[in-house]
Amino acid sequence: MPSYPYVLLSAAVSLDGYLDDTGPDRLLLSSPADFDRVDEVRASVDAILIGAGTIRADNPRLLVNSAERRAARKADGKPEYPLKVTVSASGELDPTANFWHTGGEKIVYTTERGAERLRRVPVAADVVALGSDLDWRGLLRHLREARGVERLMVEGGGTIHTQLLQQGLADEVQLVLAPLFVGDPKAPRLFGPGEYQGGRLRLLETRRIEDVVLMRYEPTAPGAGVLPSAADRRWLALACELAAECPPSGTAFSVGAVVVAADGTELARGHSREGGDPVVHAEEAALAKIAPGDPRVTSATVYTSLEPCTRRASRPVPCARLILAAGVRRVVTAWREPDTFVAGADGSGLLAGEGVDVVVLPEYEARAKAPNSHLLP
Ligand SMILES: NC(=O)c1ccc[n+]([C@@H]2O[C@H](COP(=O)([O-])OP(=O)(O)OC[C@H]3O[C@@H](n4cnc5c(N)ncnc54)[C@H](OP(=O)(O)O)[C@@H]3O)[C@@H](O)[C@H]2O)c1
């Protein structure tokens, strides 16, 4: 399963939800102190991405402006400036734009058609063609695997933010609300129409910065099918944290589980041996807390640090069967069961064989194993 960078969407909007006005100059929405905060966030990431529309509209430099922050990056063994990234399907990019002539390395993700145009009118950047259409997962995978990007800041515009949020690829939204109005329906909006997650995002922080307010949100909705969303990773991380809360045992694994509705609402959580029950399993404990017949379960996702069991001595029904009986159709796990107690257990295979979408995210395996290290060779 591919691993992506942490994706942070950053934007400032007017009180009526616009990113800019329609005038020739960029509308300054943030306050000076907030521009400095943005500079700090830029200094903390490996790459910054903007859409070709923002290059055309604003002609930004997209730099870390503080010399101290650049020096600190170098002292940490990082490049002085984060990698600058843009996306363009058309490849119609102005080679004289500031983006190409300031800062450090640059990369353009484009289509075959765009790459053809960029061969004729080149820009000072690496050009990566991702096929006939641009696939965001392919782009994120390339940034992580080919360029080592672990944290990506996306600074707009609205077209880009909308796609990343709707495709469940944003880990965090940093939104600044500026106390002014645009009032022009032709001005660009932060988020366009389309299908977003159904429920509420989680509020992480609010911060007053002069006359603007920073709000940080996390999307919460599970992914669809076998495609992981950014929120899937966080829920699985929570399951791994719950595993660490289990009463210790020399004869059973410590596992954590969370059941999450399709709109991102947590339905229940559990961990091994919770509540004084010496043999209860994490998925069993979590599912038992959901009212029978709760209609949200059939579209829910079960996150479990270790794949659901297929055979157990302690109780008649293993967790994979409990999950099927509950009607759950999607399971995300970090760790395939080793042969420690049961040879050849294959909970993922059993569930997939029954049509359940099973997603294994091995980047969480070490966290899932940590509370079980005494049981492993
Ligand atoms: N207030 C803020 O925080 C903030 C931040 C950034 C931008 N802005 C404002 O936002 C406005 C620009 O926003 P925008 O929505 O017009 O432009 P944008 O999101 O910056 O860029 C859109 C362009 O990116 C490329 N693109 C987008 N999705 C793609 C995909 N899936 N595959 C391939 N290419 C893709 C296309 O380029 P091609 O056309 O070349 O194919 C598309 O035209 C400006 O007014 C700017 O001032 C405000």
TrEMBL record:
Entry keywords, A to Z: NADP, Oxidoreductase
Pathway noted in the entry: Cofactor biosynthesis; riboflavin biosynthesis; 5-amino-6-(D-ribitylamino)uracil from GTP: step 2/4
Record-level GO BP terms: riboflavin biosynthetic process
Reactions catalysed according to its record: 2,5-diamino-6-hydroxy-4-(5-phosphoribosylamino)-pyrimidine + H2O + H(+) = 5-amino-6-(5-phospho-D-ribosylamino)uracil + NH4(+); 5-amino-6-(5-phospho-D-ribitylamino)uracil + NADP(+) = 5-amino-6-(5-phospho-D-ribosylamino)uracil + NADPH + H(+)
Signal peptide bounds: none
EC number: 3.5.4.26
Domain CMP/dCMP-type deaminase: 230-357
GO molecular function terms listed in the Swiss-Prot or TrEMBL record: 5-amino-6-(5-phosphoribosylamino)uracil reductase activity; diaminohydroxyphosphoribosylaminopyrimidine deaminase activity
Gene3D superfamilies according to UniProt: Cytidine Deaminase, domain 2 (3.40.140.10), Dihydrofolate Reductase, subunit A (3.40.430.10)
Top EC class, one word: hydrolase
Function: Converts 2,5-diamino-6-(ribosylamino)-4(3h)-pyrimidinone 5'-phosphate into 5-amino-6-(ribosylamino)-2,4(1h,3h)-pyrimidinedione 5'-phosphate.
Family label: In the N-terminal section; belongs to the cytidine and deoxycytidylate deaminase family. In the C-terminal section; belongs to the HTP reductase family.
Protein name: Riboflavin biosynthesis protein RibD
UniProt source species: Streptomyces caeruleatus
